Amino acid sequence: MANEVSMDDIKKLRELTGAGVMDCKTALTEKKGDIKEAVKYLREKGIAKAEQRSDRKTGEGVIASYIHPGDRLGVLLELNSETDFVSRTDEFRQLAKDICMQVAASSPRWVQREDVPEDVQNSEKEIYKKQAKESGKPDGVLEKIASGKLDKFYQESCLMEQPFIKDPEKNVKTLIQELISKTGENIKIKRFVRFVLGE
């Protein structure tokens, strides 16, 4: 099977994912030369590795900023890494800039769902249950409907779960995990502030 994998395909897959030659060859062999499936395979593999790094300490990083044309909207963001070696790379700084633009465009309220206060979660859930009940849904499915809508609320309100503005096929969490798997370091969004003139 390996001899069916061309060097051109390996090169293309490397450009798309930043993965090593052998990893690309394995992925293409596994997925019978299907580049799209191989990207998915590597992404899943990378994400699995990224999850293992998520508890490592992040004491370095950058404070990045973005001012929207017209100077009426601005964002400050702290993005952390384990070492300044990684935080000084162009890729890391580009990621910080992209996330700043994400915050400007999509106005998240929290970094991740774990940051959403419990009273806000409960209040949202009650609203969804009430809406479902009023639209005639049976009591047995109210909880399920409310949970589904709460997931949508997280996707809209939590930065990590928002679809990435430059590539809606992935969310911000996936974007960060891709760089984690490339650098071998934990990377975390510590905090952000979105300023709107007059607000």
Provide a concise account of the structure shown.
The protein has helices spanning 7-17, 21-30, 35-53, 84-87, 90-106, 118-134, 139-157, 172-183, and strands at 60-67, 73-81, 163-164, 167-171, 187-196. By secondary structure, the chain is of the alpha+beta class. The protein folds into three domains: 2-53, Helicase, Ruva Protein, domain 3 (Orthogonal Bundle), CATH 1.10.8.10; 60-111 and 158-196, Elongation factor Ts, dimerisation domain (Tetrahydropterin Synthase, Chain A, 2-Layer Sandwich); 117-156, GTP Cyclohydrolase I, Chain A, domain 1, CATH 1.10.286.20.
Q: What is Rg? A: 20 Å
In CATH, the architecture of the largest domain is: 2-Layer Sandwich
- What's the CATH class of the largest domain, please? Alpha Beta
- List SSEs in N-to-C order: HHHEEHHHHEEHE
Any idea how many domains?
3
Helix content: 40-55%
Major sheet: order of its strands?
A: 1-2-5
Average of the residue pLDDT scores: 87
- Write the CATH fold name of the largest domain: Tetrahydropterin Synthase, Chain A
Give me the count of strands.
5
Give me the number of helical elements: 8
Shape: globular
Strand percentage lies at 15-25%
For the terminal residues, how far apart are their CA atoms? 61 Å
